[in-house]
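# step 3/5: fold
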Amino acid sequence: MMLRRFGYLIAGAGLIALVVIYSVLDPNEVYFPKCPVKWTFGVDCPGCGSQRAVHALLNGDIAAAWGFNALLVASIPLLALLTFAEFNRMRYPRLWRFLNSRGFIVAVLTVILIWAVGRNLVPLI
Protein backbone atom coordinates (compact mmCIF):
# COMPACT_ATOMS: atom_id res chain seq x y z
CA MET A 1 0.00 0.00 0.00
CA MET A 2 2.85 2.36 0.86
CA LEU A 3 4.56 1.60 -2.45
CA ARG A 4 1.36 2.39 -4.36
CA ARG A 5 1.04 5.77 -2.62
CA PHE A 6 4.67 6.52 -3.39
CA GLY A 7 3.99 5.65 -7.05
CA TYR A 8 1.01 8.02 -7.10
CA LEU A 9 3.16 10.72 -5.53
CA ILE A 10 5.88 10.30 -8.16
CA ALA A 11 3.31 10.20 -10.98
CA GLY A 12 1.61 13.34 -9.61
CA ALA A 13 4.92 15.20 -9.37
CA GLY A 14 5.76 14.17 -12.93
CA LEU A 15 2.35 15.32 -14.14
CA ILE A 16 2.77 18.70 -12.44
CA ALA A 17 6.22 19.06 -14.04
CA LEU A 18 4.79 18.27 -17.48
CA VAL A 19 1.93 20.75 -17.00
CA VAL A 20 4.41 23.48 -16.12
CA ILE A 21 6.68 22.62 -19.06
CA TYR A 22 3.87 22.43 -21.61
CA SER A 23 2.13 25.55 -20.35
CA VAL A 24 5.31 27.65 -20.55
CA LEU A 25 7.13 26.20 -23.56
CA ASP A 26 5.50 26.23 -27.00
CA PRO A 27 6.26 23.02 -28.94
CA ASN A 28 6.20 25.10 -32.15
CA GLU A 29 9.09 27.23 -30.95
CA VAL A 30 11.13 24.93 -28.69
CA TYR A 31 12.58 21.52 -29.54
CA PHE A 32 10.23 18.76 -28.45
CA PRO A 33 10.39 15.15 -29.67
CA LYS A 34 8.90 14.73 -33.14
CA CYS A 35 6.49 11.97 -34.09
CA PRO A 36 8.45 8.96 -35.39
CA VAL A 37 5.47 7.84 -37.53
CA LYS A 38 5.22 11.21 -39.27
CA TRP A 39 8.99 11.43 -39.62
CA THR A 40 9.29 7.91 -41.06
CA PHE A 41 6.15 7.52 -43.17
CA GLY A 42 4.97 11.10 -43.70
CA VAL A 43 1.47 10.47 -42.32
CA ASP A 44 -0.19 11.64 -39.12
CA CYS A 45 -0.56 9.07 -36.36
CA PRO A 46 -3.56 9.34 -33.97
CA GLY A 47 -1.41 11.31 -31.53
CA CYS A 48 0.16 13.77 -33.97
CA GLY A 49 -0.38 17.32 -32.77
CA SER A 50 -0.98 16.27 -29.16
CA GLN A 51 1.95 18.27 -27.77
CA ARG A 52 0.72 21.43 -29.47
CA ALA A 53 -2.86 20.65 -28.42
CA VAL A 54 -1.84 20.24 -24.77
CA HIS A 55 0.05 23.54 -24.91
CA ALA A 56 -2.99 25.26 -26.42
CA LEU A 57 -5.35 23.75 -23.83
CA LEU A 58 -3.11 24.79 -20.95
CA ASN A 59 -3.16 28.31 -22.33
CA GLY A 60 -6.96 28.35 -22.77
CA ASP A 61 -7.08 28.11 -26.58
CA ILE A 62 -9.56 25.28 -27.11
CA ALA A 63 -10.10 26.05 -30.80
CA ALA A 64 -6.38 25.79 -31.57
CA ALA A 65 -6.16 22.58 -29.53
CA TRP A 66 -9.06 21.14 -31.54
CA GLY A 67 -7.24 22.01 -34.75
CA PHE A 68 -4.03 20.32 -33.61
CA ASN A 69 -5.67 17.08 -32.42
CA ALA A 70 -9.45 16.91 -32.10
CA LEU A 71 -9.38 13.35 -30.75
CA LEU A 72 -7.24 14.42 -27.80
CA VAL A 73 -9.61 17.26 -26.93
CA ALA A 74 -12.69 15.06 -27.38
CA SER A 75 -11.18 12.33 -25.20
CA ILE A 76 -10.66 14.52 -22.12
CA PRO A 77 -14.05 13.62 -20.55
CA LEU A 78 -13.32 9.93 -21.15
CA LEU A 79 -9.88 10.27 -19.56
CA ALA A 80 -11.48 11.95 -16.55
CA LEU A 81 -14.04 9.13 -16.29
CA LEU A 82 -11.31 6.49 -16.56
CA THR A 83 -9.32 8.19 -13.81
CA PHE A 84 -12.41 8.47 -11.61
CA ALA A 85 -13.24 4.78 -12.15
CA GLU A 86 -9.68 3.71 -11.37
CA PHE A 87 -9.56 5.60 -8.07
CA ASN A 88 -13.09 4.49 -7.12
CA ARG A 89 -13.07 0.91 -8.36
CA MET A 90 -14.24 -0.47 -5.02
CA ARG A 91 -17.08 2.04 -4.76
CA TYR A 92 -18.22 1.68 -8.39
CA PRO A 93 -17.12 -1.80 -9.50
CA ARG A 94 -19.66 -2.04 -12.35
CA LEU A 95 -18.36 1.19 -13.89
CA TRP A 96 -14.77 -0.01 -13.57
CA ARG A 97 -15.62 -3.41 -15.11
CA PHE A 98 -17.47 -1.74 -18.00
CA LEU A 99 -14.61 0.65 -18.79
CA ASN A 100 -12.16 -2.26 -18.67
CA SER A 101 -14.32 -4.68 -20.65
CA ARG A 102 -13.15 -6.10 -23.95
CA GLY A 103 -16.06 -4.51 -25.82
CA PHE A 104 -15.34 -1.01 -24.51
CA ILE A 105 -11.62 -1.32 -25.24
CA VAL A 106 -12.35 -2.54 -28.78
CA ALA A 107 -14.74 0.40 -29.28
CA VAL A 108 -12.08 2.89 -28.15
CA LEU A 109 -9.44 1.28 -30.36
CA THR A 110 -11.88 1.38 -33.29
CA VAL A 111 -12.41 5.11 -32.80
CA ILE A 112 -8.64 5.63 -32.66
CA LEU A 113 -8.18 3.62 -35.86
CA ILE A 114 -10.93 5.54 -37.66
CA TRP A 115 -9.32 8.80 -36.50
CA ALA A 116 -5.89 7.66 -37.73
CA VAL A 117 -7.20 6.77 -41.18
CA GLY A 118 -9.66 9.65 -41.45
CA ARG A 119 -7.23 12.43 -40.56
CA ASN A 120 -4.94 11.28 -43.36
CA LEU A 121 -7.69 10.86 -45.96
CA VAL A 122 -9.72 14.04 -45.40
CA PRO A 123 -7.02 16.40 -46.71
CA LEU A 124 -6.92 14.34 -49.92
CA ILE A 125 -10.63 14.82 -50.65
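# step 4/5: annotate
Residues 1-70 form one domain.
# step 5/5: archive (pending)
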